[in-house]
């Protein structure tokens, strides 16, 4: 990994901020409010955190000293003396890296987690961590060189498999064998010269949709990502739930049919064997070759391989075999989600990932299955919706992850 | 409901305690420590809650004024001046009521949640709330008359269906139709003259096993109760997770086989249609009548009906049809638990309820299924065990529920 974005940074402000953390819960609360709500007046912030004018002044002064926040002119009058505005330091930059099975997304955000720049590059995760992170860091360097950042104050990284969260190390990831035990957090932290946190890609998607997408203000929800594989982010009381060993949400091998297809994992009838990006590609090629879908056969002849996008396009063109594949897949994943809804009783189910290009046909069959199979008490007010953020859900969640960390007391 | 345990109470101490609640988090912490650890010295409590001697003295004095705690002599010397012991008021009494589908358990505990007396009575929950609570209150009165309590400082109540927790009202409970919307909390609170909380029976079982049973010190676990129906208590970070509408853990209608048995709920292949106390009774009677099990046929002829206990006894006597019923049931429930383990990645799975009389044959087939179907990362260190508390799990959890409430700031 030859890229070191730290080399030409060296600004005093950045170095000071990098070691700065809020000293107490009040300061953490103030940073969170400024991140989620943008610049605000001291007076209004004082109301929100329920601190007296003098106590607020103490905390704000300490935060100003850290360089994490700056003064931002005078606020509009509320009657009486005008209050001073404060905001998060405008030079603060977070890096979000979202490693998928077949592509890498990299984005730079400001302190309010707005995506200032975003790059996507195809990449097979099986090439291993060294190659993948060389790619990701060169994308980060490109964004930096474009003037979006002088350096990074923190980075969040998502990988498509279970992660031992405290250490930031992938554990026995089925689709990325070369990554087992690779010290992602430590290595990237050294390369980038900033704090780094690593999480499962689906957890980051959930956090992204929670921060800026369809799950804003929902406390308990599920975020099901259907890409090459299938995973589920679980949010309980506003916090991602990772489970005892970091594998919570690993729903791809839940059995949907005891007499179903055999799965590479050794069991039969696993969800992923019946529906996922990979299973759909196989089924589409089979439909093309068997003559069931002339539409897919044309596409297969032209491209040599098929994917979810081909099935989506063929379905739009009225291809019945493709429509059937989507419906059948939606039934299978809907069957699993129905069970999870009965068990978890969420306030919202978000569907995301590459396969969501299949759109409303997929969503309709998922909904049908869930509303039919789960109990009315659990589905009565349950929205099942597509994610809003698309490709930037994961990188937004990555920035959220690291900012949550940096904006909480050390 | 003609019984009013408040009538002859009237002790000044009790009335004072009934309105007493800790004023802040320190006091709540002290009450919790005394409940879970028993009497303790001021010095040691001060260390545990990290309060200075003088601040501790203030909080302890305030708690002494409420009557919730009392002085308890001098502690053993730690060198220097001997510290004073304190403890929870020895007259504090909690009532736990656990309504099952076919029986009622009532217990009285002291402040440390030790069961001082426990009664069980067969009762069909379908007789409705008025009849069931008359029964429960007469059992409570009997325990009281036996000298175990002069009155109750709080009561926890479990019902076998989903509950709108804040109001303490059962909602659309499938096996107890007459209970829908019945104001259990309000009605019982008036009858008993003390604060009451109502929860799902499985949540209480989970809290009981957490407080005094096999789940002590486990943060994230599942408690699967297999009785007439099947339900699951979910504990996240030491707290019961109830879901958005209070129906979390309602796993009886998760589909185990798309081409399985038809279920009264209208779907096919629901877990409860394949295995539960009720399904097992039906299958056992069918095995008796069809001649597959002479052992069960003898028992059916003698008793006119069969239950889990008959299957257990027949299996112990070597009856192969009964063993097969248990194994097949264990496979079905194991299949669902395998999915939940993949999804939730718990640190422990507890199996409880009446059907656990089937013992280790059942447990073995559940384990086999879970260890085979869930991913190794989720099952590597996962104990799957029977509950320890048996019939008092629910009532212990009920006492824990109300004491958690009374021992937290109002």
From TrEMBL, chains A, B:
<dbReference type="InterPro" id="IPR043129">
    <property type="entry name" value="ATPase_NBD"/>
</dbReference>
<dbReference type="InterPro" id="IPR000600">
    <property type="entry name" value="ROK"/>
</dbReference>
<comment type="similarity">
    <text>Belongs to the ROK (NagC/XylR) family.</text>
</comment>
<dbReference type="InterPro" id="IPR049874">
    <property type="entry name" value="ROK_cs"/>
</dbReference>
<dbReference type="Pfam" id="PF00480">
    <property type="entry name" value="ROK"/>
</dbReference>
<dbReference type="InterPro" id="IPR036390">
    <property type="entry name" value="WH_DNA-bd_sf"/>
</dbReference>
<protein>
    <submittedName>
        <fullName>ROK-family transcriptional regulator</fullName>
    </submittedName>
</protein>
<dbReference type="InterPro" id="IPR036388">
    <property type="entry name" value="WH-like_DNA-bd_sf"/>
</dbReference>
<feature type="region of interest" description="Disordered">
    <location>
        <begin position="1"/>
        <end position="23"/>
    </location>
</feature>
């Amino acid at each position: 990994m030859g890229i070191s974005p730290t080399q030409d940074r060296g600004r005093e402000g950045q170095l000071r901020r990098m070691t700065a953390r809020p000293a107490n819960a009040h300061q953490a609360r103030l940073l969170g409010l400024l991140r989620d709500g943008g610049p605000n007046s001291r007076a209004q912030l004082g109301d929100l955190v329920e601190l007296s004018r003098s106590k607020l002044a103490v905390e704000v002064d300490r935060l100003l000293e850290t360089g994490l926040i700056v003064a931002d002119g005078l606020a509009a009058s509320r009657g009486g003396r005008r209050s001073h505005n404060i905001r998060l330091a405008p030079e603060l930059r977070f890096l979000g890296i979202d490693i998928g099975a077949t592509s890498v997304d990299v984005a730079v955000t400001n302190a309010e987690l707005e995506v200032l720049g975003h790059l996507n590059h195809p990449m097979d995760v099986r090439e291993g961590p060294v190659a993948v992170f060389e790619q990701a860091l060169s994308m980060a360097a490109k964004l930096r060189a474009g003037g979006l950042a002088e350096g990074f104050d923190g980075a969040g990284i998502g990988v498509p498999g279970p992660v031992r969260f405290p250490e930031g190390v992938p554990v026995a990831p089925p689709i990325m064998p070369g990554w087992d035990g690779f010290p992602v957090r430590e290595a990237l932290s050294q390369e980038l010269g900033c704090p780094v946190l690593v999480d499962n890609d689906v957890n980051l998607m959930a956090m992204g949709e929670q921060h800026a997408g369809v799950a804003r203000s929902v406390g308990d929800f599920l975020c099901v990502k259907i890409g090459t594989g299938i995973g589920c982010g679980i949010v309980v009381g506003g916090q991602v739930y990772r489970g005892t060993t970091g594998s919570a949400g690993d729903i791809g091998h839940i059995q949907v049919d005891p007499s179903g297809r055999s799965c590479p994992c050794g069991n039969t009838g696993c969800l992923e064997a019946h529906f996922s990006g990979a299973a759909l590609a196989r089924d589409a090629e089979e439909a093309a070759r068997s003559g069931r879908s002339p539409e897919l056969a044309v596409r297969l002849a032209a491209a040599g391989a098929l994917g979810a996008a081909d099935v989506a396009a063929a379905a739009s063109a009225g291809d019945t075999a493709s429509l059937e594949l989507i419906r059948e897949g939606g039934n299978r994943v809907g069957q699993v989600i129905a069970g999870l809804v009965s068990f978890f009783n969420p306030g919202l189910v978000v569907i995301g990932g590459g396969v969501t290009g299949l759109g409303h046909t997929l969503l309709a069959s998922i909904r049908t299955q869930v509303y039919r199979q789960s109990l009315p008490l659990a589905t009565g007010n349950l929205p099942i919706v597509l994610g809003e953020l698309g490709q930037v859900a994961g990188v937004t969640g990555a920035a959220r992850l690291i900012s949550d960390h940096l904006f909480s007391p050390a």
